Amino acid sequence: MKVLVTGGAGYIGAHVVRALAAAGHTPVILDDLRRSREDRAGGFTLERVAIENTAAVSRVFERHRPEGVVHLAGYISVAESVRDPDSYWAANLSGAASLLVAATRFPPRAFLFSSTAAVYGNAEVSPIPESTPLKPTSPYGASKLAFERLLHDAGRAVGFRSAALRYFNACGAHPDWHVGEEHEPEEHLIPRVIAALLDGRPVEVNGNDYPTPDGTCVRDYVHVSDLADAHVQVLEAGSMPGGMSVNCGSGAGHSVLQVIEAIGAALKIRPTVATKPRRPGDPASLVADPRLLFEQVTWRPAHSDLKEIVASAVGWELWRRAHRAGR
Ligand SMILES: NC(=O)c1ccc[n+]([C@@H]2O[C@H](COP(=O)([O-])OP(=O)(O)OC[C@H]3O[C@@H](n4cnc5c(N)ncnc54)[C@H](O)[C@@H]3O)[C@@H](O)[C@H]2O)c1
Questions:
Q1: From the CB of 247, is ligand 1 less than 6 Å away?
Q2: Looking at the whole model, is its pTM more than 0.70?
Q3: Residue of 88, 80, 101, 225 lying closest to 143 (CA atoms)
Q4: Which fold does the domain 189-219+251-323 belong to in CATH?
Q5: How many CB atoms neighbour CB 239 within 10 A?
Q6: Mutate to test the pocket of ligand 1, among 29, 76, 99, 245 (most ligand atoms within 8 A of CB)
Q7: Residue located nearest, by CA, to atom 35 of ligand 1
Q8: Which of 7, 103, 198, 276 is the most exposed place for a label (fewest CB within 10 A)?
Q9: Where exactly are the structural domains of the chain?
Q10: Which CATH class is domain 2-170+222-248?
């Protein structure tokens, strides 16, 4: 099937595009490269368009008539969204609404959306099922939740199957595709720890007095290749009811210290830890209950073992340093 992948030059999108192609689909990327580069489109068809440009987005739909849409284009930082909420609402809600205008004119069969565990805010249960109250604590989480609702309403009204995948912590990289994590600035734990160890700096840990086994925050790390495969399966799962929002995580939790230890072991560098105060708003534990997705598709995380995640992320960073002068 022809699948329009917005944000297909980004970290997760680039993996989704390649996983779709590997499964025999025809991806078309829609990305204005504001947070990426053309080489990450990897030679797949690239429509260099901002999602906010409703007329241009509609022309892309008219030209390609995609049967599937995977919408990943957007901003991704909780902290940045608190500093600059307007941009987050503009890109993550208004921009996304442009896609729905186009999808109404040229309806796909299925429309998938990259949502986030941030829709739960400071969840009081762990693992977190989808029935947990939705209380986002940032404009990022709130804008993602608002679009989930808009998307499901539009899907019901227009007659396409909608699904929102609530990612937990995406990480790792496909060993051969060379499109690993490259956010600017990088806020995610695994690439930050790898960079600190390779650069000979202490690793900063925000808070070691949480109510967790070792006092540091616990998160659910899901390999980006697993996430990409989940998109392929949900797109292909014609029997999955529309209007579903499902968790996409491994179901296992690892603490910050466990992640640091695993990266130290992979690099054979003994980490030095610098403990800093807690960051406001960081929940102690965010781990997915992924059973709802398991009921819908045969997908199971196959690469989300911490060792495999870390090995692939280290491999990517070493490749990146070897191939990108000055980085
Ligand atoms: N990385 C994670 O751990 C994580 C977790 C939960 C949810 N998500 C969601 O997944 C999606 C992808 O995340 P990522 O880590 O790949 O981010 P990324 O920044 O690497 O990729 C985003 C891509 O979208 C493009 N883009 C952004 N705004 C655009 C716009 N208005 N018009 C056109 N193109 C635009 C950027 O150029 C970039 O290529 C995001 O929507 C994010 O909220 C990510």
A1: no
A2: yes
A3: 88
A4: UDP-galactose 4-epimerase; domain 1 (3.90.25)
A5: 7
A6: 76
A7: 73
A8: 276
A9: 2-170+222-248, 189-219+251-323
A10: alpha beta
